[in-house]
Design goal:
Elements (H helix, E strand, L loop, with lengths): L1 H47 L6 E8 L2 E3 L2 E3 L7 E3 L16 E8 L6 E12 L2 E7 L12 H4 L3 E2 L16 E15 L2 E11 L5 E10 L1 H9 L6 E10 L2 H7 L1 E11 L2
Parallel strand pairs: 4-6, 8-9, 11-13
Antiparallel strand pairs: 1-5, 2-3, 3-4, 5-6, 6-7, 9-10, 9-12, 10-11, 12-13
Length: 262
C-alpha cells in the first residue's frame, strides 16, 4: 500500500510540474505578445507626431483651441500657431472643431511658435477651401517665451497686511484661481477677472484685481481647461488702499500676461 501511495504521489508531482511549466510558457508568450503590441503601438504613435524643422512646415489636424491670433492642433505638440492678420471667418476661435491644413514658418529664435502662412479648411472629405493667406508681418506684442518667464519671481505669503511682499516687485507670479464675472456697463457686457490666492493653511489670503489680461494668457487658460489653479504671471501695479484692503481683502491691481502649470 505504501508503494502505491508513493507512486501516486510521484505521478501527481510530475503532473503538477508539467502544469506549472505549461502555465509559465503561456504567461511568457502572452507577455511577449503584450510587449510586441506595446512596441507596435508606441511605434505607430511616434509615426503620427510630425517632426518640426526650421523653415516651412505643413500640418493637417483638427483645431482644439483658438483665441485671438493663437490656435493649437494636437499634431503639432508643443507648438502654438500664430496668425498674422485676420482669418476670413474671424479670429482663431472660429477654427475650433474644424479640420484644417496649415502651412507656416518655424525658427529657432521662437522655438514654441509657428508663424502661419496659409490655412485651408476641409469642407467635405477631400475638398479644401483656402481661408487665409499671410499678407503682413507677425506682431508678437503679448507673446512671452520661456526665457522671459524666468524674470517673474514667485510671490509667497501674500496677505492684506503685508504689502511689502508685492510692492516694488514689478514682475511676479502667483499660484491661484482666476475667477471671471460678467458685468453690464451701459448697454455692453464686460468680463471682469480676479485672482484668488490662498495662504499656507489653505485659507483665502485675498484677491488680486486684474485690470487687463492678454489673449496669450486666455489662450493658455483655455488649453489648460482641465485645471482650476495655475501659476499666473503678472505685472504688479498699484496697491489697494489700506481701508478697502482690510475690508475686502483686495490686495493690488495687476495685468495678467501668461498662465501655466509651473
Amino acid at each position: 500500500m505504501s508503494f502505491i501511495q508513493s507512486e501516486g504521489n510521484r505521478k501527481l508531482k510530475i503532473i503538477s510540474q508539467i502544469f506549472g511549466l505549461s502555465l509559465l510558457i503561456i504567461l511568457f508568450v502572452a507577455a511577449g505578445s503584450i510587449s510586441c503590441k506595446k512596441k507596435t503601438e508606441e511605434g505607430e504613435a511616434l509615426e503620427e507626431v510630425t517632426v518640426i524643422k526650421k523653415g516651412m512646415n505643413e500640418f493637417e489636424d483638427v483645431v482644439k483651441v483658438g483665441v485671438g491670433k493663437y490656435f493649437f492642433i494636437p499634431g503639432a505638440q508643443g507648438i502654438d500657431m500664430v496668425v498674422p492678420g485676420q482669418i476670413e471667418s474671424g479670429d482663431s476661435s472660429s477654427l475650433e472643431g474644424k479640420r484644417i491644413r496649415v502651412r507656416g514658418e518655424f525658427s529657432h529664435e521662437k522655438p514654441s511658435i509657428l508663424v502661419v502662412e496659409t490655412i485651408d479648411v476641409e469642407e467635405a472629405e477631400g475638398e479644401w477651401r483656402n481661408i487665409y493667406i499671410k499678407t503682413e508681418d507677425v506682431v508678437l506684442d503679448d507673446y512671452l517665451d520661456s526665457r522671459d518667464r524666468e524674470k517673474f519671481k514667485p510671490l509667497k505669503k501674500l496677505d492684506y497686511t503685508k504689502k511689502d511682499v508685492w510692492e516694488g516687485i514689478g514682475k511676479g507670479k502667483v499660484y491661484g484661481k482666476l475667477e471671471k464675472t460678467t458685468v453690464t456697463q451701459g448697454e455692453e457686457e464686460k468680463d471682469v477677472y480676479n485672482i484668488i490666492v490662498w495662504d499656507e493653511k489653505g485659507e483665502i489670503a485675498g484677491q488680486i484685481i486684474v485690470d487687463n489680461i492678454t489673449d496669450y494668457s486666455l489662450y493658455y487658460l483655455k488649453k489648460l481647461r482641465l485645471f482650476d489653479k495655475f501659476w499666473l504671471y503678472i505685472n504688479v501695479k498699484e496697491t489697494v488702499d489700506w481701508k478697502i484692503r482690510k475690508r475686502t481683502r483686495d490686495l493690488f491691481h495687476a495685468d495678467v500676461v501668461f498662465a501655466g502649470l509651473y
